[in-house]
Amino acid sequence: MKIIINILLVATLFVSCKSNHQVASSATSEIPFTWDNATIYFLMTDRFYNGDTTNDYKHTADNPPAPLRGYMGGDIKGITKKINDGYFSDLGVNAIWMTPLVEQISGSVDEGTGNSFGFHGYWTRDWTALESKFGTPDDLKEMIKTAHSKGIRILFDVVANHTGPVTDIDSKWPDDWVKTGPRCTYTSAETTINCTLVDNLPDIRTESDNEVSLPPFLIDKWKKEGRLDQEVAELDEWFKKTGYKRTATNHILKWLVDFIEEYGIDGYRVDTVKHTESYVWKNLWKSAQQAHKDWKENHPEAKLDDNDFYMVGEVYNFFAGNGRAFDYGDQKVDFFADGFHSLVNFDFKGDANKSFEEIFSKYDELLQGEFKGKSVVNYVSSHDDGGPFDLKREKPFEAGTKLLLSPGGVQIYYGDESARTLTADADGDAKLRSFMNWDELRAMKQKNGYTVNDVLIHWQKIGHFRNSHPAVGAGKHTKVSDTPYMFTRSWTAPNGAKDHVLIGLDMPKGNMIIDVTALAKDGESVRDKYSGITQTVVNGRITIDSMFDIVLLEKI
Is 535 left (phi over 0), alpha (psi -120 to 50) or beta? Predict the structure, then answer.
């Protein structure tokens, strides 16, 4: 489906998303937020927006980064700026996931393409501190407070599988904390878990039940920072309260949970899930859920709702079509049973090549069946997937329509909504990690027969509709007709409120006579949120004169 939008005509039709915590319903009750309809915006903190130039890192001439493998200035204040600007609300985003914010290794490693630095956040040096290049604790508190004021939840990207690589200037983790081999071969659970992902990426000894002492370099670091006594006292309290042994893994779990207790975050996106024993995630969920409950009780004025703490896991190559359990080859593990509400779904990027009904009916069957009570998070592109849907950004309208209207949660990778390049002049996954294309949006850049602003407006309209109607992601999908292709989504919230929408795709442009008996009765008003047109139902039909081939219909 190709929709070319005249930005000057439609700009006046677009209505900004309400910055409240619930969405209105035609019923008497308000429809609550549900993670089953999550619209998660995934951004690389360093690559999104530079809100504070004073913390920018200047690479030196004697140690330059390879293309797109060094720091570029994006930070926490940049995220806050765009929240305040309404960028996320206009896109219908109800959760933001940013790459890890914890302190990274200081040095660089040669990955075969030149020097690489920890700009992406996955090379941890100290789980108890924020990376100063990204911002300060006060910056983070302000960002979360601002997001919550707009009804937007915050997900922390957390890593418990590995530390940062060994470099010439970074202290090594002790051998009882990490191992540096063997290299993973992925032929069984053992060769996927008890191994290192790549050379020189120390793997936490999650398999070990041995108690460990704090690494000397952390003790020295905390002493210099004047917080050693506090950190030690908190660890003593944590292990006494939980009864956990002082293993390497349990130290890290404590440090991860601290971000809930300190900042009131709403969930985790958990990295490298399949590379760690499932008990790790079960313990993390248990501790995180309690910390989240305690935080809300201690901050009743700041809580958004009574939902449980949310965890979505990255189980690389988890394909929802294969069922809930992930197959290691010699055993299967159901990570949903370990506290995960959702897993990132690697199936969808391929499914996006199918027809609308093939996609929607597949995920309706899965989510209303085997996955009932759980969900998936679908995506079309990501930071480390070299085979995304629409690599060359030739079908950004189709990508937005299929992703945002699919049952389940969705992940918008920064720039999906503005056709940011996925083929930047760099090597490997760096191709996918260019700086957000704000300059192209300002210039209304033309590419592949569209402007990037046209793409953004399309994603905004569908995203806004999706956020206003949890039935889109959480509801039951029912096909109404093949020609034109129309379907309903219906959802009943736990509080009894009902949400019901009617959607048409590949519609005939111009004067459309649409049968809306699946949505409304004669005399009721129906609004098409895509064109902005409202009509009264007569003889079960409405007439819409629209230049678009999509209708997003709601009863008002």
Answer: beta
Position 267: which residue type?
G
The pairing of beta strand 409-413 with beta strand 342-345: unpaired
pLDDT (tens digit, 9 = 90+) per residue, 317-336?
999 999 999 999 999 999 99
Confidence of residue 29 (pLDDT cuts 50, 70, 90): low
**Beta-carbon contacts of residue 384 (< 8 Å; ≥ 6 apart):** 429, 432
1 by Cβ neighbours in 10 Å (0-12 / 13-18 / 19+) ranks as middle
Distance (Å, rounded) from C-alpha 181 to C-alpha 196?
Answer: 6
Closest CA to 378 of 414, 350, 398: 350
CA distances from 458 to 86, 464, 551 (A): 16, 10, 12
Q: What does the alpha-carbon distance between residue 458 and residue 205 come to, in Å, rounded to a whole number? A: 47
User: Phi, psi at residue 103, to the nearest 5°?
Assistant: -60, 135
* Beta strands 153-158 and 95-98, pairing class: parallel
Q: Give the number of other CB atoms < 10 A from CB of residue 387.
A: 10
Place of tokens 């649409």: 514
Per DSSP, helices labelled H in 264-390 are 278-298, 348-351, 356-368
- Strand ranges (DSSP E) for 326-408? 326-327, 332-333, 342-345, 375-378
Share the mean pLDDT of the chain.
Answer: 94
Check: CB of residue 468 under 8 Å from CB of residue 404: no
SS3 184: coil
Q: Any residues with CB less than 8 A from the CB of 190 and at least 6 apart, and which?
A: none
Condensed to tens digits (0 to 9), the pLDDT of residues 64-107 reads 999 999 999 999 999 999 999 999 999 999 999 999 999 999 99
Selection from 504, 503, 508 nearest residue 547 by Cα: 508
Q: Of 93-97, 109-113, 174-178, 461-465, which range is least confident?
A: 109-113
- 108-138 b/e (C-beta count within 10 Å ≥ 16 → b): bbebeebbbbbbbbbbbbbbbbbbebbbeee
User: Taking the complete model, does pTM exceed 0.90, yes or no?
Assistant: yes
Q: How high is the pLDDT of residue 48?
A: 98
Asked if the bond preceding 388 is cis, omega within 30° of 0, the reply is no
Cα–Cα distance measured from residue 399 to residue 402, given in angstroms and rounded to the nearest whole number: 5
CA atoms within 13 A on the CB side of 484: 18
Q: Which helix (H) or strand (E) holds 250?
A: helix 248-263
Residue 351 has φ and ψ, to the nearest 5°, of -60, -25
Tokens of residue 232, six digits? 């030690």
| pLDDT per position as a tens digit, 514-528 | 999 999 999 999 999
